Amino acid sequence: xxxxxxxxxxxxxxxxxxxxxxxxxxxxxxxxxxxxxxxxxxxxxxxxxxxxxxxxxxxxxxxxxxxxxxxxxxxxxxxxxxxxxxxxxxxxxxxxxxxxxxxxxxxxxxxxxxxxxxxxxxxxxxxxxxxxxxxxxxxxxxxxxxxxxxxxxxxxxxxxxxxxxxxxxxxxxxxxxxxxxxxxxxxxxxxxxxxxxxxxxxxxxxxxxxxxxxxxxxxxxxxxxxxxxxxxxxxxxxxxxxxx
Length: 244
Prior knowledge:
It is a single chain. By secondary structure, the chain is α+β, with helices and mostly antiparallel strands. The chain has one domain. 43% of the residues lie in helices and 19% in strands. It is built from seven helices and eight strands, in the order αααββαββββααββα. The chain has helices spanning 6-51, 56-59, 64-74, 104-113, 172-175, 177-181, 218-243; strands at residues 75-81, 87-90, 119-124, 129-136, 141-148, 155-162, 197-199, 210-212. The strands form two sheets. It has a six-stranded antiparallel sheet with strand order 2-1-3-4-5-6, with helices on both faces. Strand 5 and strand 6 (155-162) form a beta hairpin. The radius of gyration is 22 Å and the shape is globular. The model has no long low-confidence stretch (mean pLDDT 90).
């Protein structure tokens, strides 16, 4: 074949594309299970940090295998609820088959659009129940987990994360322990509008269902505030019934 011809160039380019695509598919297939395992362990770390199972630093230095065991040893039950507040599914808590609802964006869209939801509730042996929150920050999604005390009227702890918030500003929702520690002991105003407030000088008036926003991170704070209230509203029927 004439290596200077157009047909040779087309054939050569096609072969390269096919080989590269095959290699990428092979690598993705091999790495997929490991990536899923890492994502599951990361979610469990965040949930258990909110629940106070161990300090966050200790959890994030623990191996994936030990994280699975720690979760299995401390979880009592896990289930999902629908928009009506009733259970609509069970999640396995067995170490070998731990089930999570960790893709939160589809649930967030369903909540906002009035669609069907399967909202997870993780109840630990300590009595606290952990629920997720998810929303939009300044540059990308923000999310986290809120641990509710028995009775579900007050917060036991919280953990937050983000995709690309500004270091030193919006990123403080994850990087600054003092921020998430503010949530412990606060209340959730089930049935109120809003159920919780995250804004400048929110605590000045003595409100128990509020924390001060992060100075200089207005959009991140607004995004997290919206996320909290969207998800609290979604869980309201379930937890208000428990509280009553």
